């Protein structure tokens, strides 16, 4: 008889709680970068950090979309039992290819004035090193301050600004880097002129 | 820890839903995010919203403090602490600065909270507009349109009728210039502590199935008129009979035998710290 083995070491109870708290720290302090590498290493595939967030947040109550990455979509569906949805309907959009970011932002649902929570969270994989400085302000930051970000973060914010959402409608960003660095930019964080 | 329960009592699906709702609430400060409030071994209206938030937040390494009306020793606070302890084994404390998560009812601690700490507030009635509009459909529309004129009218009528705004607790505030929010039944004394704080505030209403939040460094302004500024309670000339503090929120106590009225700090752990008891 062959023994069944788990494909990963990520603990659904304890690791998920830790990742959630790191994510909560990042969303409530948009300027603050946290690191989920320790937990991502317990998962597998080409995008373990994204899988970590999926495992923490997704289940059969929500829908997700992965733009043009069938392997990741399969892993997420298999791990979380979440349903794959069209980008316009998805609660969580996973973007691994920066060239698809504009399309993802354009198609992501932004909620309504009545139900702004029915909006998408975009989880975007960032390559490259932070080196661009942006002046950001909003809840969690307070006075406008300068932050070092990657090109992908800057581009994503530009795409989001182009959508001209009427607050509090909008989309929330979570950026993860290859080394597990995680930065969140919720909808009310805005760029200010330097 | 009782291993017959899941860690932190709730099943992982319930925690995930509460976690998703709380993240959305932080992203839209002051907006009430609906969630599927779970049954707990405690009656609704006894802090189930706060408990569900605490249970979805808590993990090994956390230090929990629970207060009720400022007291660490009230029945509600002690039982919530015991319940969370039974299902998690986390360390509990009465010291505000030691806690990573503080669950509270009716007060914000006197000791300023720091970055990284989370204050979970139990909320009986999350909808600030309920006092002027009983229908949920309409209050949702009012929030969507930012139509808060009935609330302003209520405050104005109070001013005209009584010469001052008579809302004592649950004093409405405007969050980031967008949503009017009920800060839960904290006294007006505590409202200014919400503005530009270093910590995260999470509000849970179990019976009403709503979660909302105020992230750190967020503008939270109590409603007031240009010519009638917001006023919090003050206790001129009065001091805590135990620790002698003058700038804290004081409870008025009455000795029925002697007819004497006296005052002492509502925040018991702060009072004990000042006296060097803890």
TrEMBL record, chain A:
UniProt-recorded name of the protein: Alpha-D-ribose 1-methylphosphonate 5-triphosphate synthase subunit PhnH
Domain of life: Bacteria
Lineage of the species this protein comes from: Bacteria, Bacillati, Bacillota, Clostridia, Eubacteriales
Pfam family, one: PhnH
Gene3D superfamilies linked to this entry: Bacterial phosphonate metabolism protein PhnH (3.40.50.11310)
Gene Ontology biological process: organic phosphonate metabolic process
Listed NCBIfam families: PhnH_redo (TIGR03292)
InterPro entries per the UniProt record, alphabetical: PhnH-like_sp, Phosphonate_metab_PhnH
TrEMBL record, chain B:
The protein's name in its UniProt record: Alpha-D-ribose 1-methylphosphonate 5-phosphate C-P lyase
Family matches, as InterPro entries: PhnJ
Domain of life according to the entry: Bacteria
Classification of source organism: Bacteria, Bacillati, Bacillota, Clostridia, Eubacteriales
Entry keyword set: Lyase
Gene Ontology MF annotations: 4 iron, 4 sulfur cluster binding; lyase activity
Annotated source species: Papillibacter cinnamivorans DSM 12816
GO BP annotations listed: organic phosphonate catabolic process
One Pfam assignment: PhnJ
Record has Lyase as a keyword: yes
């Amino acid at each position: 008889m062959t023994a069944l083995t788990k494909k990963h070491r990520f603990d659904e109870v304890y690791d998920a709680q830790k990742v959630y708290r790191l994510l909560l720290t990042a969303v409530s302090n948009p300027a603050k970068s946290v690191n989920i590498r320790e937990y991502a290493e317990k998962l597998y595939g080409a995008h373990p950090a994204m899988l970590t967030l999926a495992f923490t947040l997704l289940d059969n109550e929500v829908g997700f979309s992965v733009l043009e990455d069938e392997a990741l979509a399969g892993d997420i569906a298999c791990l979380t039992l979440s349903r794959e949805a069209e980008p316009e309907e998805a609660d969580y959009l996973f973007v691994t290819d920066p060239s698809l970011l504009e399309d993802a932002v354009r198609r992501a649902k932004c909620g309504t004035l009545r139900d702004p929570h029915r909006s998408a969270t975009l989880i975007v994989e960032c390559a490259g090193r932070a080196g661009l400085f942006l002046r950001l302000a909003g809840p969690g930051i307070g006075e406008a301050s300068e932050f070092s970000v990657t090109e992908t973060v800057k581009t994503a914010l530009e795409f989001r600004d182009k959508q001209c959402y009427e607050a509090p409608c909008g989309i929330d960003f979570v950026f993860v880097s290859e080394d597990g660095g995680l930065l969140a930019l919720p909808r009310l964080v805005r760029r200010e002129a330097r | 820890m009782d291993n017959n329960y899941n860690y932190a009592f709730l099943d992982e699906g319930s925690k995930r839903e509460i976690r998703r709702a709380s993240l959305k609430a932080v992203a839209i400060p002051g907006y009430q995010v609906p969630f599927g409030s779970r049954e707990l071994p405690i009656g609704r209206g006894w802090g189930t919203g706060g408990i569900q938030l605490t249970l979805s937040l808590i993990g090994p390494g956390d230090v929990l403090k629970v207060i009720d009306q400022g007291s660490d020793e009230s029945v509600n606070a002690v039982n919530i602490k015991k319940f969370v302890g039974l299902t998690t084994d986390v360390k509990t404390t009465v010291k505000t600065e030691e806690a990573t998560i503080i669950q509270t009812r009716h007060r914000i601690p006197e000791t300023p909270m720091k970055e990284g700490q989370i204050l979970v507030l139990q909320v009986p009635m999350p909808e600030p507009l309920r006092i002027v509009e009983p229908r949920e459909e309409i209050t949702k529309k009012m929030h969507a349109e930012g139509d808060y004129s009935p609330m302003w009218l209520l405050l104005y009528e109070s001013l005209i009728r009584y010469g001052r705004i008579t809302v004592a607790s649950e004093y409405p505030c405007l969050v980031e210039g967008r949503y009017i929010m009920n800060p839960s039944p904290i006294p007006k004394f505590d409202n200014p502590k919400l503005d530009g704080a270093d910590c995260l505030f999470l509000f849970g209403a179990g019976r009403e199935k709503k979660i909302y939040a105020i992230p750190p460094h967020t503008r939270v302004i109590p409603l007031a008129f240009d010519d009638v500024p917001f006023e919090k309670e003050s206790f001129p000339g009065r001091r805590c009979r135990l620790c002698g503090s003058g700038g804290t929120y004081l409870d008025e106590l009455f000795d029925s035998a002697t007819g004497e009225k006296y005052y002492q700090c509502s925040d018991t752990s702060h009072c004990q710290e000042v006296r060097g008891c803890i």
